[in-house]
Structures are given as C-alpha cells and as structure tokens.
Amino acid sequence: MNGAAEPAKGAGAFSAFERMVALRYLRARRADGFVSVIAGFSFLGIMLGVATLIVVTAVMNGFHRELMDKIMGVNGHAFLQAVETPFTDWDAIASQTEKLPGVKAAIPMVEGAAGISTQFGQSGVLARGVREKDLVRLPGVAANVKSGALKGFDAAGGVAIGQRLAETLGVGVGDKVSLLIAKGVQTPFGIAPRIKAYDVVAIFSIGMSEFDNVFVYMPLAEAQLFFNKDKEATVVEVFVDDPEKMDEFRLNFEKTVERPIIITDWRQRNKTFFDTLQVEKNILFIILTLIVIVAAFNIISGLTMLVKDKTQDVAILRTMGATRGAVLRVFLIIGASIGVMGTLAGFALGLAIAKNLDTIRLGINKLFDANLFPAEFYFLSRLPAIVDPREVGAIVAMTLTLAILASIYPAWKAASLDPIEALRHE
Question: For residue 125, what are the β-bridge partners?
C-alpha cells in the first residue's frame, strides 16, 4: 500500500507505529463523534476528580495543622497537675521541667472559670493567671497582640483579652471590665461572690474564634488572690519541640521529678477532636474517589465502543502483520492517554485552587455578598490549605492505575478479534 504506515517487523513494544495508530484513533471524526464525546467526559471526570481530591486533602491538612498550631499555641503539649499536696512548689517543678531535653517552656498558671461584663455586654470566660515573662513566651498570644502591649503586664495589674471577646463587650485598650466568680470571700453569712474591675491592657487575636472569645490573661499573683489560690498554681503547661514525642517526655519527666504529678498531654485532651478530623478526611477521600472511578468506567465504555467501531480496521492491521500484542498496546495507549491527560490537567487545576483557596473564597464572598466559611462556626479566621506531596503523589498514582486498569478489558477484546471473522461479516 503506497504511503501506508506498516508495522515494522520485530518492532518493540509501544513502538512509533503503535503510538501513531493510537493517536489517529483518538482524533475526533464526524463518524466517531459519540465515541469522542465519551472520551471527553472521561477526561473531564478524571480532571475534576483529581483536582477535587487534591483540594479536599489540602484543606483537611490545613485544618489539622492550623488547629494544632492554634490549640498548642495557647494550651501547651503537656499539663502537670499536683496530687496529694497543694501545688505550691510550681516554680521548682517548672524549672526542673524546662531543663529536660526537647522542652521549650514550662509555664505555671492559675486557671478558673469566671464571668466578665461591661455596660455593653457580658460573657463567660476562662481566666488564666500567668507571669509576664511566661506570657510573652506563649506563641499564640505574644505573636498576635493587635492593640496594647504585654510589656509591664505584671505591674499594670490589668488583663489581656481576645479580640472577639473585646468586640462582644464593646471595649478597647484602656477600658475597664469586671470579672466575677461565685466563690469569693468567706463572710458570716456564707461565701459571697467576688467581683473586681480590671483595665484592658492588651487585645490579641489568636485566629481561632473559640479562643479569642474565651481566654482572659491576668498576672499570676493577681489570679492567686482572685481565685483564693494562696501561693498555688493549678497547672504547669509544657511546650515541647516535637509534639509527637510525648512518650519520651513522660519518661524523662518521671526519671527527673520525684513529686507526685498527674501528666496529661494534647493527645488525651484533643484525641476525639483530631480523630474526628482524620475520619472525615478518610471518608471524603473515599467518596471523592468515586468520581475518578466513574470516569474510569467511562473509559471502559468509550474504548469498548471504539473497538466495535474499529473492528474492520483492527482486522486489516492484523492481516498486515500486526500482532495481538500490538493491537492490545494500541488501545492501552488510548486509555492511558486519556488518564494521563486528565490526571495532569487535574493536578495543575487542583494545585492552582489549593494555593489560592482563601483568595478565591474572599473573591466569591465579595462578588456574591456571601459569607463562605464563617469563622464563628469553623473556629478559624481563614480557609487553610496545605498540599502534601506524598498525598498528591498517591492521588496521581491511583488515578493513573485506574485508567490503565480500565483500558485492559477493551484492549484485550480488540486483541482477541479474529481478523477473518471480522472481515467476513464486513
């Protein structure tokens, strides 16, 4: 045949001839329009599936990291509480703990629930007494002061409050707030509530609405007086370099400190919360993988119809010397090409959305006057996204595998055609 490309005898697998035939079959012609539409839907399904998986896993990773940073930025990684005797030796315990390997800070605190009020509003809070030198080491607070200052915190005798709490109470730096506890001073008539006014010396914004609306920091000595904790602390919060090595910290602490202490860590206090996040991430991954699986079934449908449409062409190729393996590889290349192109497009789209997710959210809010991702419901002031290369690699590998597997059966059917029977029926 003049000008016709013939299979080279002894050509290797996935030769130029096989790739050329596959490319010609992929091109849309009027007679093959319906097959091309199915291939297009397969491509779009894979692209959207991969992009969605990348974006969702990035958002869940962002949630986990942001919440971990916010929670550990103010709550510590381990919590030391005294047993048997009052916790009056908190300074010595904190000093011993800070000398342990991997410990960044050990901060003694007095904690207690209280009511807070102004003439504009009231709320329930968790009041924390902490020394100025320790407060400036709390990463979640010291790095996020929006107005006022922590310098001179002990001498000022005032309080530092979260931004959302300040908005609720309608106060700013220099204004007064009143703290109230039910168990105050002992009187001949019983225990009377204690109420005391404090100046607001600083306003911080941790970025987690739950914390910005609840925490109130006051000097440690003032908190001891206010909560009737004479020379006591309620807890020493420990911050470590690696939160995943809490078991190692426990062993070192128990070897060093002889005083009876109850140790709890972030895994115990937040286990249900972070386990729930992981379960949600896994379920979303499984559900969204169905998009890719549906697209893979579209590949099967499209290739099956293409095999039926190209029965005569396949028979002619076989009579010209193409082997069963060559025909099999031609259709494998077609299915794999759809999978590869769809995966690469989804990969690029997913990364682009994940990297600009919060900008996209703000744009949609402005365009439609909406409030996507309200901070009061989702605890965070922005929509976080962290792309994990390992997870992206797993998504890409899974998609390509599904595309290749979806191509095997139609390719095998094409390779199994009997050229004589096929031509006879034509």
Answer: 114
CA 406 to each of CA 57, 82, 358, 363: distance values in angstroms, whole numbers, following the listed order: 25, 62, 36, 39
Residue 134's nearest CA partner among 188, 96, 99, 98 is: 98
Q: Which pLDDT does position 345 carry in this prediction? A: 94
- What token pair was written down for 45? 């399904």
For residue 220, give the amino acid letter.
L
Crossing angle of helices 389-415 and 324-355, in 10° steps, is 150
The answer to whether the beta carbons of residues 39 and 341 sit under 8 Å apart is: no
The single-letter DSSP state of residue 373 is S
Place of tokens 């709390």: 138
Return the pLDDT at 4: 45
**Strand runs labelled E in 220-310:** 235-240, 261-265
E strands, 16-141, in order: 78-82, 103-117, 122-130
Spell 79-115 as b/e; 16+ CB within 10 A means b. Answer: bbebeeeebeebeebbebbeebeebebbbbbbbbebb
- Indicate the domain borders of the chain: 16-68+274-425, 85-259
Pairing type for strands 122-130 and 215-219 reads parallel
**pLDDT for position 37:** 75
Instruction: For residue 303, give both structure tokens.
Output: 């290739």
Residue 162 is encoded by which pair of tokens? 């979260």
Distances (CA, A) of 93 to 237, 254, 367, 410: 11, 12, 55, 71
Tell me which long-range contacts 244-253 makes (C-beta under 8 A, separation of at least 24): 245/102, 246/77, 246/78, 248/102, 249/77, 249/78, 249/100, 249/102, 249/103, 250/78, 252/100, 252/101, 252/102, 253/78, 253/80, 253/97, 253/100
What Å distances lie between residue 109 and 78, 130, 373, CA to CA? 13, 5, 34
- Residue 407 CA to residue 395 CA, distance in Å, equals 19
With a cut of 50, which residues of the chain have pLDDT below it? Answer: 1-5, 8-10, 30-31
For residue range 336-371, what is the model confidence (pLDDT) as tens digits?
888 889 999 999 999 999 988 888 888 887 888 777
Residue 380 carries which DSSP code? B
CA angle 314, 318, 302 (to 5 degrees): 20
Q: Which residue has the tokens 């991954």?
A: 285
Cβ(194)–Cβ(157) below 8 Å:
no
Question: Degrees (nearest 5) of the Cα angle 231, 185, 215?
Answer: 65
Identify the three-state secondary structure at position 149. Answer: coil
